[in-house]
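Course exercise 7: structure representation. Students receive a sequence record and must write out the corresponding structure in token form. The form below is the worked example handed out in class, using DUF2911 domain-containing protein (168 residues). Read each field label carefully; the graders check that inputs and outputs are placed in the correct fields and that the protein name is recorded exactly as given.

STUDENT ID: A-19
EXERCISE PROTEIN: DUF2911 domain-containing protein
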Amino acid sequence: MRLQKKICLLFMALLTITFVNAQNKPASPAAVATGKINGATITINYSSPSVKGRVIWGELVPYNKVWRAGANDATTFETDKELTIEGKKLPAGKYSFFVIPNEKECVIVFNKVAKQWGAYKYSEAEDQLRVAVKQQIANSSAESLVYAINKNVVVLSWEKWNIPFSVK
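STUDENT ANSWER:
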């Protein structure tokens, strides 16, 4: 009888710890992508939501509307040197980073107001740079949103899309 009581108490303790830990994990944890392209240091701060069985593109993230390119605060894109994004100049600085997706292409936006909650107070008048890029269908689905900074390209990957843009 004592062994059963100890096993029961151990099970209850493990269940309680698991429940408490699950409550403390944010749904969209903060993440950072950093890298160098042509001598410039690039830092992308974002919150990484998960797919969780949802349809992302065209539903959770509506087509033809400004999206914060992550969750919670607007994603920020910071560079310590001038860059060329898809052939257009982006001065050194810190920007909020948005995406306007649709079925055929995505417009990526670097906005001069770096600190914003979501896209609720987004103003096109504050845009530093906008460029259109073609999204790619990914070979595999990315459950969590992630940014990668590669040799000459930055890629946002989530669900079945990769949204790359060239950086020089």
